[in-house]
Amino acid sequence: MNEARALRPDPLAPWAAIVAGVGPVRVEALLTMPDDGWRYEVVEGVLVRVVGSGDLATIIAGIILTALNVFVRPRRLGRVTGASSFSLVTDRRKPVPFAPELAVEVASPDQDVLEMAAKARRYLRGGTRLVWVVWPDARTVDVWHPGDLRPRHEDMRPSVTKHLDDGDALDGEDVIPGFSQPLTDVFNV
Q1: Containing H/E element for 62?
Q2: Smallest Cα–Cα separation from 53: which of 106, 108, 91, 99?
Q3: d(CA 123, CA 98)
Q4: Cβ atoms < 10 Å from Cβ of 55
Q5: How many of the other CB atoms lie within 10 Å of CB of 147?
Q6: Number of C-alpha atoms within 13 angstroms, CB side, residue 57?
Q7: Same domain for 103 and 12
Q8: pLDDT of residue 84
Q9: Omega into 97 within 30° of 0, i.e. cis?
Q10: In what order do the strands lie in the sheet with 79-82?
Q11: What is the reported pLDDT for 99?
Q12: pLDDT digits (tens, 9 = 90+) for 119-176
């Protein structure tokens, strides 16, 4: 799977490698693709291949996904969708692709800050109100809001992005009012 890292990422999706020889693609095409061990995404009609999440990232994603579902479902706040990256959607009539209210990305060991910052900015430009980028190895979370430009630790200059550590908690803010999940519970796997 290191083959995806050997391909030069395109500015369209720096967290992924563009799949060559494939014309414009719609998101629905992902449902019919064979399982070849890769994860795929569609970015502006372009098929890209993403490095797999890894065991720790998948476990942590499952913990957050479960916590969100346990909070969101009984309150009928929307629906939580996805796997190692997932989102909260409050309007069931929204077509795919869509900008979710909350996007959660759990970084794999092969993904870096610049790649994930580009992905967070893409969500925010699309209308997402809150993005959590989870870093399992560092046991931290970058919290992105509309208008944020870079994660705090990208160049260590101050920014408006929140950076949560192991002792902090995920906060649903005004997107999921009342939701709070201690990061110690997320990272202690």
Answers
A1: helix 55-75
A2: 108
A3: 9
A4: 12
A5: 8
A6: 20
A7: no
A8: 44
A9: yes
A10: 79-82, 85-89, 102-106, 130-135, 140-144, 162-164
A11: 77
A12: 888 888 888 899 999 999 999 999 999 877 655 555 544 455 789 999 999 999 999 9
Residue 109, Cβ density class (10 Å: 0-12 exposed, 13-18 middle, ≥19 buried): middle
**How many angstroms separate the most distant Cα atoms in the chain?**
47
CATH code at 72?
Answer: 3.90.1570.10
DSSP 150: S
Q: Are residues 125 and 168 in the same domain?
A: yes
How far apart are alpha carbons 183 and 44 in whole angstroms? Answer: 33
pTM tops 0.85: no
Q: How far is 127 from 106, CA to CA, in rounded Å?
A: 20
Sign of the torsion angle spanned by Cα atoms 120, 136, 89, 98: positive
Note whether 117 and 158 are same-domain residues: yes
Tokens of 2: 């290191």
Answer whether residue 4 shows pLDDT above 50.
no
- If asked whether residues 32 and 117 sit together in one domain, one would say no
Q: Which range marks the domain in which residue 43 is found?
A: 3-50
Of how many residues is the chain composed? 189
The span from the CA of 70 to the CA of 65, in Å, is 9
